[in-house]
Amino acid sequence: NNDTEDEERLWRDLIMERVTKSADACLTAINIMTSPNMPKAVYIEDIIERVIQYTKFHLQNTLYPQYDPVVIVMLYNKVCDIVSSLSELLEIQLLTDTTILQVSSMGITPFFVENVSELQLCAIKLVTAVSTS
After folding, report:
1. Where does the UniProt annotation place the signal sequence (predicted)?
2. Which residues span the domain enclosing 82?
3. For the whole model, what pTM was predicted?
4. Domain count across the chain
């Protein structure tokens, strides 16, 4: 029994480490894109779409199912940063209609989930950026 519990804990730790590294990669990409005076070549649509897919996946499958996001606070904070940074990106770069639809749904869903008030504040910024773009 102890071996099984240790193995499960190690497995969870490994998964969380990979999820966290992926969130860091998303944040790095978005931070580069939202830096001042970046050339147009930096705004790679595929990377933007992958950041959005990553964020939506973890919102729906990791954060929203947790009634109390304190359990996974590091991921929660990183996702909030990504959502906030996406709103800055929308002010800088025009995105395709498909991408805008993905971002719009990501910005609206936090308002139907409890205990994600910081994310809701970031989502307000995102929805505002979508409506002005």
Report:
1. none
2. 1-132
3. 0.87
4. 1
pLDDT digits (tens, 9 = 90+) for 27-56: 999 999 999 999 999 999 999 999 999 999
In Å, how far from its chain's centre is CA 111?
15
The distance in angstroms from the start CA to the end CA of the chain is 56
For residue 12, the Cα-to-chain-centroid distance in whole angstroms is 20
CB proximity list for 104: less than 8 A, separation 6 or greater = 127, 130
Question: Is residue 38 helix, strand or coil?
Answer: coil
CA gap 28, 12 in Å, rounded = 24
Instruction: Say how far apart CA 133 and CA 117 lie, in whole Å.
Output: 24
